[in-house]
C-alpha cells in the first residue's frame, strides 16, 4: 500500500450522514491525499453542511485540511434541504461537540481552483452533494480542466430515484449543475442509487462501529442508527444505504466497483422527471459515452475499506 503515491483528491460535500463517512474514508485511507474539502448546500443549508464538515474533520484529527464554503443554493431555483433524512442539523444522532478548525476565507470554488492549480499533478474531484460547486468551477475557471484527472460523483441512478420517482437527491437539487459536469468532456464517473442501495449499514455493521471502542466508532454507530430510523420511516428500508463513501472507495480501489462507459444525460425539462439521469445502457441513442456508470459493487470489500479507514482515524 505504502509504495504507490497517494492520489490527490478534493471532496465537495454536503454532510450529511453518509458524507461524514466519505470524509472519514478519505482521511483514513493512505492511498488518498485529501487536499481540501469544499461544502455545498444540499442535505442542509450551507452554514450547517460547512459546520458539519469541520466537526467531522476535527473528530478525524484532520484540522490541517482546508475547508471552504461554496454555493448556498443551486444554479437555478430554490434550495430544498433533506431534513427528513438527515435531521435539523444535517448530522442528527450523535453528540458532535468538538473544537473545530476555522473555515478558509475564500469561496469553495476559489479554494478548488487554487488547490488544483497548485497541486503539481492532476487532481481527482469527488462530489458527494449537488454538483453546484463543481459546475461553477468548470464554467468560471475552464483553465483548471487539464489539471482535473476525473470527477467522481455520487448521484443519479440507472433506474428509479429517491427524491422524485425518477430523480435522485443530488441531481434533483441542481439538475443544471449535473448537466454541465456531464457535458464537460472530463472523465466522469457516476455512482448512482442502483449501486449505493446495495451497501447497507446493517445491524452488524453498526455494531462493528460501536465495538471499535473509540469515540469515533460510537459516533459512526450513532450516525448510522439515526440514518436507519429515517430510511425506515421514509422509504421502508430495513437498513440504510451509505451512498457517498462509495464514490471515495471507487477512487481508492476501482476493482471493487464495476462500471460501464455509456451516454448519460440529465432531464432538465420533464414535467415529472426533472433531475432524472437518463442512462443509455444499451447504446440505443447512438450518442458517445460521456460517463463511466457504476453497475456493481463488491459490498464486503467496500466495508472492509471503510472500517479499516475509520479504525486508522480513531487511533490518531
Ligand atoms: C445522496 O443524497 C444525500 O441525502 C446523501 O448524502 C447522498 O449524497 C443520496 O441520494
Ligand atoms: Ca451527500
Automatic annotation (TrEMBL):
GO biological process, one term: purine nucleoside catabolic process
Pfam families: IU_nuc_hydro (PF01156)
SUPFAM superfamilies assigned: Nucleoside hydrolase (SSF53590)
Recorded GO MF terms: purine nucleosidase activity
Top-level lineage group: Bacteria
Keywords attached to this entry: Glycosidase, Hydrolase
GO cellular component, one term: cytosol
Name of the protein in its database record: Pyrimidine-specific ribonucleoside hydrolase RihA
Record organism: Winogradskya consettensis
